[in-house]
Write a structure and sequence with these properties.
The complex is a heterodimer of chains A (294) and B (359). By secondary structure, chain A is an all-alpha fold. Chain A contains twelve helices and no strands. In chain A, helix 7 packs antiparallel against helix 9. Chain B has 15 helices and no strands. Chain B starts with 5 loop residues before the first helix and ends in a 7-residue tail after the last helix. Chain B has two domains: 94 residues; 242 residues, MetI-like fold. The chains are: A mainly alpha (294), B mainly alpha (359). At the A-B interface, helix 5, helix 6, helix 9, helix 10 and helix 11 of A face helix 2, helix 8, helix 9, helix 11 and helix 13 of B. Chain A: Keywords: Cell membrane, Membrane, Transmembrane, Transmembrane helix, Transport. Chain A: Its main location: membrane.
Chain lengths: 294, 359
C-alpha cells in the first residue's frame, strides 16, 4: 500500500509556531529530565569504569563517614556506598524498562482481545482489571512477591501483575474506536483472520499511545520495585539495589549516609522520568493543551 | 452547561432523580456492587494464595513439627487445608457473611480481632494525612493555576513532581533521622509515648478515644506521634492533589461565568473561593478518593519505619509468613475501604454540586 499521505487542511504558520513552542524539547523541565535519564544510562553502562571498586568489595572499615576517600562513606560491611550507588543503576534501570515493557505487552494483549471481541470476554477481562485497580499496588505486589518467594525476579513479576490494567484500559478504548473503521472492515472482508487483523491493522494504531504511557510509567516502576526490595521482598543481599540499600540505612539510621545516597539515586531517576513524562503528557493531551493555549 | 464537568459525568452519578427514594435506590445498587466487588477481591486473593508454591504448613510450623507427618496433617485439618479448593472458598465466603474471617496462623487469634486492633491505627493515620494533603495540595494547586506559567507555577510544578517522585520509605527515613534523631522535635515511633497506656477502646482512634475519656496527656501524645508519619505520607498525595487542583481550576477559570463574576467587580479572592474552587472540588474529591487508596499503599512502607502497629505492618507480616487467613482478611478490609471511599466521594458530589443528583 503506497498511498501518499496528504495533510488535511495544513495548519497555518501561526499554529505551527505555536506547536513548536510547545514541543517537548523546548521545555526546560523536559531537557533537565532527559539529561538526567541520559546521565543515569551512561552511569549504568560505564559503571565498571566509574567505580573504583566492585559493588561487593569489602575493602574499607565499616560505617565510615563521607570523606575525600569515600565520597558517600562506607556501609555496615565496609563497602563503598558510592560504588554501590553506581552499580545499583545496573539493577534498577534495566529491570524498570523490562517490567514496563512486560506490563505494556500484557496489558495491550488483554486490552486488544477485550476490545476486539467484546461481549462476555470484554466484561470478564475488564472486571479483572477493575479488581486489580481497586487494590493498593504495593499490598498486592507484596502478596504476590511473598507467595512466589522473595527474589528480584519475582518482585518484577509482582509489579507486572499490578501494572498491566492501565494499559489494558487504554488499549481497549483505542481498539473500540478503531474496530468500526473501514480499514478494519476491509481487512476482514479480504479474509484476514481475527489474529491477523489485530496484529497487522490494529497494532500500529495503539503503539503510539502505549509508548507514551510506558514512558510515564517507568518512574512508578522504579518506585514500586525499590519499595519491594526495601521490604526485603525484592533484591536480596548482597545485591547492590537502591531500595535494599535504603533498608540497610534504616537499620543503621544514625549513620545518615548509608540510606541517604541510594534514596537520592531513586529520587533523581524517578524525577527525571516524571519530568519527561509530564511534558509529553502536556504536549499530547488535547485537554491540557487547550488550557495552555487559552 | 449540562455536562460541563467530565469528571462528574464519568463517575456515573450524574443522572437525575426526583425524590429521596432515589438515594435509597442508589445506596442499594451501590451495596450490591460492593458485595460483588468484595466477592471478586476475595476470589482473586484466594486464587493467589492457591498458586503459592510455598506451603503454609512449613511456613508456620516449627522445624521439628515439619518432620512429623501427623503434625502437618493436623495443621492442615485445623485450617481446612485438606479439603477441596472450591469448597474451601465457599466455606470462607459463608464464614465471611457471619463476620468470621478465620484464625490467623501466626498470631493464633481470630483475624477479625487482629484487624479490629490494627485497622483503626492505619485509618487514623491515613485520615490525618489526607486532611493535611487536601489543605496544602488544594491551596498550592490554586496558587499555581492563578499564576499560570509565571514563576510560582513553574516552581510549584517542580515541587509537585518532586512529591510524586520521592520514594516514601526514604522520605520516612530522612524525616525520622532529622526530626526525631537529630533534633528531637517529634517522637520517633509507635502511637504513644513509651509507658503510656492506650485509652479505653471505643473507636480505636487514639485521638478520639483519649478525648472522649478526657485523657488530655494521652491525646497530646497521640497527636504528636501522628505528625511525623502523616507528614511523610502526605508528601506523595500533596503532589498528586496539587496537579489535579491546578488542572481543574484552570479548566473552570476559562468559563464565562468566571469572567462575569470578575466583570461585576467581585474581589479576586471571592471569585476564586466561591465561583472557581467550589466546582473544582468535584474533580478534586474524586482524586482525593484515589489518593486515599495510595495512602494505604504508602502506609505499608511508612509503618515499617515508624513501627506503627497498623494494617500495613499486619499485611507485611502475614504476606511474609504466608498467613493465608490474614492475607484474605487484609484483602477484605482493603475492598471495604475502597467501597466506602467511593461511596463517600459520590455522596460528597451531591453536597458540593447540587446539579449532580444520585440515581
Amino acid at each position: 500500500m503506497t498511498v501518499t499521505e496528504s495533510v488535511p487542511a495544513a495548519p497555518a504558520g501561526g499554529a505551527r509556531r505555536d506547536r513548536a513552542a510547545r514541543s517537548p524539547w523546548r521545555q526546560p523541565l523536559a531537557l533537565v529530565g532527559g539529561a538526567l535519564v541520559v546521565l543515569w544510562v551512561l552511569i549504568a553502562v560505564l559503571a565498571p569504569l566509574l567505580a573504583p571498586q566492585g559493588p561487593l568489595d569489602q575493602l574499607s572499615p565499616k560505617l565510615l563517614e563521607p570523606s575525600g576517600q569515600h565520597l558517600f562513606g562506607t556501609d555496615e560491611l565496609g563497602r563503598d556506598v558510592l560504588n554501590r550507588v553506581i552499580y545499583g543503576s545496573r539493577v534498577s534501570l534495566p529491570l524498570a524498562f523490562l517490567l514496563v515493557a512486560l506490563a505494556a505487552v500484557l496489558g495491550s494483549v488483554v486490552g486488544t482481545v477485550a476490545g476486539f471481541f467484546g461481549g462476555w470476554v470484554d466484561g470478564a477481562l475488564m472486571r479483572l482489571a477493575d479488581l486489580v485497580f481497586a487494590f493498593p499496588g504495593i499490598i498486592l505486589a507484596m502478596a504476590v512477591a511473598a507467595a512466589l518467594g522473595p527474589q528480584l525476579r519475582n518482585a518484577v513479576l509482582a509489579v507486572v501483575v499490578v501494572s498491566w490494567p492501565s494499559y489494558a484500559r487504554l488499549v481497549r478504548g483505542l481498539v473500540l474506536s478503531a474496530r468500526n473503521s473501514e480499514y478494519v472492515a476491509a481487512s476482514r472482508l479480504l479474509g484476514s483472520s481475527a489474529f491477523r487483523t489485530m496484529v497487522v491493522d490494529l497494532r500500529p494504531n495503539i503503539a503510539g499511545p502505549v509508548l507514551v504511557m510506558a514512558a510515564l510509567d517507568v518512574g512508578n516502576a522504579v518506585l514500586l520495585l525499590s519499595g519491594l526490595s526495601f521490604l526485603g521482598l525484592g533484591a536480596q543481599p548482597p545485591t547492590a539495589e537502591w531500595g535494599a540499600m535504603v533498608a540497610a540505612g534504616a537499620a543503621n539510621f544514625d549513620r545518615w549516609w548509608v540510606g541517604l545516597f541510594p534514596g537520592l539515586a531513586i529520587l533523581t531517576v524517578v524525577l527525571a522520568f516524571n519530568f519527561v513524562g509530564d511534558t509529553l503528557r502536556d504536549a499530547l493531551d488535547p485537554r491540557t493543551a487547550r488550557a495552555i493555549r487559552e | 452547561m449540562s455536562s460541563a464537568n467530565p469528571t462528574a459525568a464519568a463517575s456515573g452519578a450524574g443522572q437525575r432523580a426526583r425524590s429521596g427514594r432515589g438515594l435509597l435506590r442508589f445506596l442499594a445498587r451501590r451495596l450490591a456492587a460492593a458485595v460483588l466487588l468484595c466477592a471478586g477481591i476475595t476470589l482473586v486473593a484466594f486464587v493467589l494464595t492457591q498458586l503459592v508454591p510455598g506451603d503454609p504448613a512449613t511456613a508456620n510450623l516449627g522445624q521439628r513439627a515439619i518432620g512429623d507427618p501427623a503434625a502437618v496433617a493436623a495443621f492442615r485439618a485445623k485450617y481446612g487445608l485438606d479439603r477441596p479448593v472450591p469448597l474451601q472458598y465457599l466455606t470462607y465466603l459463608g464464614n465471611l457473611l457471619q463476620g468470621n474471617l478465620g484464625m490467623s496462623q501466626q498470631s493464633h487469634r481470630a483475624v477479625a480481632q487482629d484487624l479490629a486492633e490494627y485497622v483503626p491505627a492505619t485509618i487514623e493515620l491515613a485520615l490525618f494525612a489526607i486532611v493535611l494533603s487536601l489543605l496544602v495540595g488544594v491551596a498550592l494547586g490554586v496558587v499555581a493555576a492563578v499564576n499560570r506559567d509565571r514563576w510560582p507555577d513553574q516552581v510549584l510544578r517542580v515541587v509537585s513532581l518532586g512529591g510524586v517522585s520521592m520514594p516514601t520509605f526514604w522520605v520516612a527515613l530522612v524525616a525520622f533521622y532529622l526530626l526525631f534523631f537529630k533534633f528531637g522535635l517529634l517522637p520517633g515511633g509507635g502511637r504513644l509515648d513509651p509507658g503510656m497506656n492506650a485509652p479505653p477502646h471505643l473507636t480505636g482512634f487514639y485521638t478520639v478515644d483519649a478525648a472522649l475519656g478526657g485523657q488530655w496527656d494521652v491525646w497530646w501524645s497521640a497527636v504528636r506521634h501522628l505528625v511525623l508519619p502523616s507528614l511523610v505520607l502526605a508528601v506523595y498525595t500533596v503532589g498528586m492533589l496539587m496537579r489535579f487542583t491546578r488542572a481543574s481550576v484552570l479548566e473552570i477559570l476559562g468559563n464565562d461565568y468566571v469572567r462575569a463574576a470578575r466583570a461585576k467587580g467581585l474581589p479576586e479572592r471571592v471569585v476564586i473561593m466561591r465561583h472557581v474552587l467550589r466546582p473544582a472540588m468535584v474533580a478534586i474529591i474524586t482524586v482525593a478518593g484515589v489518593a486515599f487508596g495510595s495512602l494505604l499503599s504508602g502506609a505499608v512502607l511508612v509503618e515499617n519505619i515508624f513501627s506503627w502497629p497498623g494494617l500495613g505492618q499486619y499485611a507485611y507480616h502475614s504476606a511474609v509468613n504466608l498467613d493465608l487467613p490474614a492475607i484474605m482478611g487484609v484483602s477484605v478490609v482493603v475492598a471495604a475501604v475502597y467501597i466506602v471511599m467511593n461511596l463517600l466521594v459520590d455522596l460528597l458530589y451531591g453536597v458540593i454540586d447540587p446539579r449532580i443528583r444520585l440515581t
